[in-house]
From TrEMBL:
It comes from Rhodococcus zopfii. The chain crosses the membrane at residues 22-48, 54-73, 94-121, 133-151, 160-181, 201-224, 236-257, 288-308, 344-362, 374-395, 407-426, 438-455. The keyword RNA-binding does not apply. Its main location: membrane. It is found in: Cell membrane. InterPro entries: AA/rel_permease1, APC_superfamily, NAD(P)-bd_dom_sf, Sacchrp_dh_NADP-bd. Coiled coil: none annotated. Residues 715-745 are annotated as: Disordered. Pfam families: AA_permease_2 (PF13520), Sacchrp_dh_NADP (PF03435). Signal peptide: none annotated. Residues 502-600 form the Saccharopine dehydrogenase NADP binding domain. Keywords: Cell membrane, Membrane, Transmembrane, Transmembrane helix. This is Amino acid permease.
Length: 745
């Protein structure tokens, strides 16, 4: 029963994205046509020359290794946070916030760069056609249309991008096929696959340009919450995107080398630059085809802008939902089911930055595009490298780790991506294409962003540990439970003074709870409260100086309020809860404490829910029923039944043997455990169940013999309301809190 606050959980985004639609969203971010027109000539000129196709092959192989581990993560964690969430799961919360801030800077830099680039080239193309509008007019149109599509449901953007991306891939395929038809086997010279002899500097630059051409493929995970069957859709979309992009890049660059000639490709590219592919298209398909390619270049840039806008929205949404940014950004539009406020935020950033450059009369390409492109590229490649090592951290101690898929492959990808980061840093001025010292010093801002993320994380850890603890945990039901990173316990509690009192702390359950608290370091002071003070002292002595023992009579409300007065949280392990649950909860709230328990009685559960309004009003957190069974057992049974076509019989069980506490040397068993009293109470009273769409108090259970698999028999304690038939069990919907005991032989 958390109190209402900005930290209240919000629903994940929902959608019905399929593999093809996610592939279009991802390929749009990579912008194959723009990469071939703008980046490929630079790779020929400054990079590996005729061996550029080999560089695309190497980069594609490294990214494929990365994607193997990336896909393994996406099958277990589904969240709009993408890389940010994966880093939280694999490396911890503070690195995740640092990565989130770097991603914010990188994505926003790319978004602003794309607005500037689109408006600049649109102005050039349309000005040549006699339409003389200034570039800010085209920028305003691009920002408005992007904002509109980004505000709406993702399916709208996916369909729109599907048309644009399909068109640019089609025209690239047509150009390639026609040139192969004209050139024959000479379109595929073997020299293009041989990087030997091109020089170390050229090799490094060639790999750098190849890696930058794959930007955006990591965006598949950002759409997990909005996809159909994300544990299958996201990995398949990731593999497909890399394969499609690598094939088009590799083939187009290879055929281009064949069309020009390996010996002449470097000089031709240096002379023609962005006109290289356009001139080849005009030569082999005619001027009309070249004009079509020019128009599609503009739509390709806009498609990349829209894809980048959507990626940025989902990152801002995830950071807002986690409380790293304002939680206003973590809200989902009630009708469009989109991160609408995050979209408005990104639109505002574009308006402010582009507007400032327009008012200053600055050139959008020479100032804004070249400065932001290198910054965004370096930031995203660095994040991909960190994520590769997060995959290793996530799977390191998991039983489902695989030496190849979650070990060797992500390690190889991480090493390759680290090499790419180094290459970009060393040759950053070549990537930007300018000698401006201010522009080439911009990578420092990525370091500053990471430091700002660390400061933000530490601030949350000190001032709002609950929000800090939830970082990276907002995932869908398709995700598997992710344990906190090992370092997060220490970081959460290192600067937090927290006193926890365990009621029944010397009992069979209580002393295990005390030991767990001590082992996790979740409290700086632990109070072991028990009616048997001698046993409480033994437990406290076992823990050490951070624990102390007090005598507590749970039947005395005044004594409990006094004991709870200087505590932060009360952990109630004292049963039977039908007797002690409500009085202890009331005393905890009276003392102004948060409260947790391991209640497994339905009566006290119903009574505890009546405290919801009070707990919210007073700002208290109340968590009940931790590990309760058969409530949890019934939920598992329900989940299992929902995954089957038909269910003939469904049994949930609770072993009465658990009512016997195993003795320890210092804590010998002394009489029946509270679980025995709990079981007797459930057998002799009514059970609150959920039947026929509403709550019902069913009659006491009675034993019936049942047949189990492998010739086993058991004793089923069946509720009397079903008249001795198996009708209730055939409904495939177990009654909540129904007690069933099964003895097998």
């Amino acid at each position: 029963m958390p109190h209402p606050s900005p930290s209240a959980p919000v629903s994940p985004m929902r959608g019905n994205l399929t593999v093809p639609r996610i592939v279009f969203l991802v390929i749009a971010a990579a912008s194959p046509l723009a990469a071939m027109v703008a980046t490929l000539p630079l790779a020929f000129t400054l990079g590996a020359g005729s061996a550029t196709p080999a560089m695309y092959l190497v980069a594609g192989t490294i990214l494929l290794c990365f994607s193997v581990g990336y896909a393994a993560m996406s099958r277990r964690i589904v969240s709009a946070g993408g890389l940010y969430t994966y880093i939280a799961a694999g490396l911890g919360r503070t690195p995740a916030v640092a990565a989130g801030f770097v991603a914010l800077l990188a994505y926003n830099a790319l978004a602003v760069m794309l607005v500037a680039t689109f408006s600049y080239f649109t102005h050039l193309v349309l000005d040549a056609a006699g339409i003389g509008l200034p570039w800010p007019a085209y920028a305003a149109c691009a920002i408005a249309l992007t904002g509109y599509l980004g505000y709406r449901r993702i399916d709208v953007s996916a369909k729109f991008l599907g048309l644009l991306v399909g068109a640019e891939l089609l025209v690239l395929a047509v150009v390639d096929v026609v040139m192969v038809g004209h050139l024959g086997a000479s379109a595929f010279p073997l020299e293009a696959l041989n990087p030997v002899g091109i020089g170390q500097a050229a090799l490094g630059l060639g790999l750098m340009f190849a890696f930058t051409s794959f930007l955006g493929f990591e965006a598949a995970a950002l759409y997990g919450e909005e996809s159909r069957n994300p544990r299958r859709t996201v990995p398949l979309a990731t593999y497909t995107s890399i394969a499609v992009v690598a094939i088009f890049y590799g083939l187009t660059s290879w055929i281009t080398v064949g069309a020009i000639g390996p010996a002449d490709v470097r000089s031709a590219a240096a002379e023609q630059l962005g006109d290289l592919l356009l001139n080849l298209t005009a030569e082999h398909l005619g001027d009309g085809a070249a004009e079509v390619l020019t128009v599609l270049l503009l739509t390709s840039l806009f498609a990349t802008l829209l894809a980048c806008h959507n990626s940025t929205n989902r990152l801002v949404f995830a950071l807002g939902r986690d409380g790293v940014l304002s939680r206003r950004f973590g809200q989902v539009h009630p009708r469009h089911n989109s991160p609408s406020r995050a979209s408005l935020c990104q639109t505002t950033v574009n308006v402010v930055v582009i507007g400032a450059f327009a008012l200053g009369g600055l050139d959008p390409y020479l100032t804004l595009s070249v400065s932001m492109s290198g910054l965004g590229t370096l930031g995203l490649v660095a994040l991909q490298a960190v994520t590769a090592f997060a995959v290793l951290g996530f799977f390191r101690h998991r039983p489902d780790r695989d030496r190849l898929r979650t070990g060797i492959a992500p390690l190889s990808g991480g090493i390759g991506l680290c090499a790419a980061v180094i290459l970009i840093l060393v040759h950053y001025s070549d990537l930007t294409g300018v000698d401006n010292p201010v522009v080439n010093a911009l990578p420092v801002t990525l370091v500053l962003a990471a430091l700002a993320g660390v400061v933000r994380a530490r601030r949350l850890r000190r001032r709002d540990p609950a929000t800090y603890a939830a970082i990276g945990t907002h995932t869908t039901n398709d995700s598997e439970p992710t344990p906190p990173h090992r370092g997060d316990h220490q970081m959460t509690t290192a600067n937090t003074e927290l006193t926890a009192l365990v009621v029944g702390g010397a009992g069979g359950m209580g002393r295990h709870a005390v030991r767990t608290l001590a082992r996790l370091g979740a409290a700086t002071r632990i109070v072991v409260a028990d009616l048997n003070e001698d046993r409480a002292r033994l437990v406290a002595a076992e823990i050490g100086s951070s624990a102390e023992a007090v005598r507590l009579d749970a039947t005395d409300p005044d004594a409990m309020r006094t004991a709870f007065a200087d505590c932060d949280v009360i952990l109630n392990t004292m049963g039977p809860f039908a007797r002690f649950g409500t009085p202890i909860l009331r005393a905890a709230l009276d003392a102004g404490c948060d409260y947790l328990d391991i209640d497994d009685d339905w009566q006290s559960t119903v009574e505890a829910l009546e405290f919801d309004e009070r707990a919210r009003a007073e700002g208290r957190h109340v968590v009940i029923g931790l590990g309760a069974s058969p409530g949890t057992t019934n939920m598992c049974a329900r989940l299992a039944a929902d995954r089957l076509d038909t269910v003939d019989d469904l049994f949930t069980g609770w072993s009465l043997a658990s009512a016997v506490v195993e003795p320890e040397d210092n804590f010998p068993a002394n009489g029946a455990a509270a679980a025995a009293e709990h079981w007797l109470l459930q057998c002799t009273g009514t059970i609150r169940a959920w039947e026929d769409g509403g709550p019902a108090d069913i009659a006491p259970p009675r034993p019936r013999r049942i047949r189990l698999s492998r010739h086993r028999t058991g004793l089923r304690v069946h509720d009397g309301a079903s008249g001795g038939s198996d009708a209730a069990s055939r409904r495939a919907r177990p009654a909540v809190q129904r007690q069933l005991a099964v003895r097998t032989g």
